[in-house]
Write a structure and sequence with these properties.
Layout (H helix, E strand, L loop, with lengths): L1 H25 L2 H24 L1
Helix pairs in contact: 1-2
């Protein structure tokens, strides 16, 4: 249970930092939210290529 809570905390912290950074750069709440949602999907899609390299 502690491991799951730690992982959730890490994910939420990562998303909050990504949102804040994207909002600071763009000034757009919509784009920042989209970036927070799209970024993990891209990471998952590119991970196999990274591991292969």
């Amino acid at each position: 249970m502690v491991s799951a809570a730690k992982k959730i905390s890490q994910v939420l912290t990562h998303m909050a930092i990504a949102y804040a950074l994207a909002y600071t750069v763009t000034g757009s709440a919509v784009f920042s939210g989209l970036a927070v949602l799209v970024e993990p999907v891209i990471n998952v899609l590119l991970l196999p290529f990274h591991e292969a390299a």
